[in-house]
Write a structure and sequence with these properties.
By secondary structure, the chain is α/β, with parallel strands linked by helices. Helices cover about 55% and strands about 10% of the residues. It folds into 2 domains: about 140 residues, Diaminopimelate Epimerase, Chain A, domain 1 (Roll); about 55 residues, no CATH class. A 4-stranded mixed beta sheet has the order 3-2-1-4, with helices on both faces.
Length: about 210
């Protein structure tokens, strides 16, 4: 994932602040390089391949068992080295696993960023995980009771389409503005409302997950 520049951070932060002026809701944007390291899955695949190595060699060659064993060790060692690559680990992970991990990290970030502590339960998390090509909106109970889920689905579809075209900042700004408009319709600003959460882009650069 290409790092966000200082100007890009500023543009997204300004979009959040502007969107929140029209609503009592709180918007937090989190972007992760990856939602999981997939180390365990990659090592499991490498081990399974290594375990399968002796079968064809025993039946198709007359190699001594010691050679077969050394070949098996060599395949496992090579696989472990290849599995050090994050790109490889992500590539071999099933889509269902990747989306499951990304959803789990989104929920964790919703709690970690204290979105569940807002006074009116009107916190919204916009979560994007680059490696998994996954995006999701998680809204607190107060919003889920008022806003239909398909509205968020449309927002995510537009955001991912813009990111895919290389217009990620424009995509985030449009998604934030749209999110603010949705919240403003159901949760207008309070007279003495306060900004409960920071209005800046949160980037999780390193995935220290298994």
């Amino acid at each position: 994932m290409k790092p966000f520049t200082r100007d890009e951070h500023a543009v997204i932060a300004a979009a959040i602040s502007c969107a929140e002026k029209a609503t009592s809701g709180e918007i937090v944007v989190v972007v992760a390089r990856a939602s999981s390291g997939y180390h365990f899955f990659a090592l499991m695949c490498v081990a399974l391949v290594a375990l399968a190595v002796p079968l064809p060699l025993i039946h198709l060659t007359k190699w001594p068992i010691e050679y077969v064993y050394l070949m098996q060790l060599g395949v496992f060692a090579a696989g472990v080295l290849i599995a050090q690559s994050e790109r490889f680990r992500v590539a071999i992970a099933p889509r269902r696993l990747k989306h499951g991990r990304a959803h789990l990290r989104a929920i964790e970030q919703f709690l970690a960023q204290n979105l569940h502590t807002t006074k009116g339960r009107t916190g919204v998390l916009l979560y994007v995980s680059n490696a998994e090509r996954y995006a999701e909106v998680i809204a607190d109970d107060g919003i889920y009771n008022s806003v239909q889920p398909d509205i968020w689905d449309d927002l995510i579809d537009d955001l991912t389409a813009q990111i895919g075209r290389g217009a990620r900042v424009e995509g985030f700004v449009a998604a934030i503005e749209r999110c603010g408009a949705i919240l403003a319709e159901h949760f207008p600003p309070e007279k003495l409302g306060e900004d409960e959460l920071p209005n800046h882009l949160i980037v999780l650069d390193v995935a220290k997950f298994t």
